[in-house]
Amino acid sequence: MGQIGLREILVLAVIILLVFGAKRLPDLARSLGRSARILKSEAAAMKSDAPAAPAPAPPAQEGPTSAPSAPAPPAAERPTPAPSEPAPPVAEAPIPAPRP
């Protein structure tokens, strides 16, 4: 028990053929292949984006070559940028009068 044999695979294939039809099976297989290809490429991209080792810290400079900068304010204190264009007004539908 627990193993799938040739008989079970054939039964599943016949059921899938009956449910989806012979015309849609190539489209389903094609879209399944595209999805698998996209998933594979995204997984490879995630692996290549992850750094293998942390980057070394830049060496400290001696002497006052530049003025120290102030730390950035917390997110709650930062001003929000103004939108470039105002949002268009929302048209409200008239409310119909109740029928007597």
Overview of the molecule:
By secondary structure, the protein is an all-alpha fold. The protein has a domain at 24-48. Helix content is 40%, strand content 0%. It contains 2 helices and no strands. The radius of gyration is 31 Å and the shape is flat. It starts with 5 loop residues before the first helix and ends in a 51-residue tail after the last helix. The relative contact order is 0.04. Part of the twin-arginine translocation (Tat) system that transports large folded proteins containing a characteristic twin-arginine motif in their signal peptide across membranes. TatA could form the protein-conducting channel of the Tat system. InterPro entries: TatA/B/E (IPR003369), TatA/E (IPR006312). Residues 43-100 are annotated as: Disordered. It is found in: Cell membrane.
Name the quaternary structure.
single chain
Q: Determine the mean pLDDT.
A: 75
The overall strand count is 0
What is the count of DSSP helices, taking H or I runs of 4+ residues?
2
Summarize this structure briefly.
Residues 43-100 are annotated as: Disordered. The chain is mainly α and 100 residues long.
